[in-house]
Every structure is written in structure tokens, then in C-alpha cells.
Amino acid sequence: xxxxxxxxxxxxxxQKQAQQQKQVQAQPNQDRLEISDAAKSMQEAGKLPxxxxxxxxxxxxxxxxxxxxxxxxxxxxxxTNFFSEGE
Length: 87
Description:
Distance between the termini: 100 Å
Oligomer: single chain
Structural class: mainly alpha
């Protein structure tokens, strides 16, 4: 049996995928990310100096071991200074 058609096309199953890739590559990148100055300063503020990190680790160990002793007079003085400076 022989089928003769007048409308013969070459069908390529990968042609649609190739066309889509060309369209994607032709489009300029539209996504952008900008970090504000306020966000940058917040990132910098989150970084602790090495000496402070060491002190925090010492305090954590003391609390875990049960050897940390808080001085109530020092705490009261620092709280008073903190709240009096805010006014």
C-alpha cells in the first residue's frame, strides 16, 4: 500500500523544545536583587567580634555546668544605667 500526500512536512519531535530554548535565551534576564543599605548594616551588626564570641562561649559553659554566679548589684546598676540613658 502506498500513501501519497501532497502536504508532506518533516516532523521533528525536538523542534518545539529547541524553539522554546531559543525563546528563553533571547529573553533578557529580568530578575534582580538589590540589598538596601539598611539591610547591609543589619548584616554587619549581626556579626560579633571574636572576643565577644569567646566570652559568650565561656558564659554558656558556666551556665551549663551550674557554676555561673550572677552579681545582683552589678545587674541592678547596669539596668539602672540602661533605662536612665534612654530618657
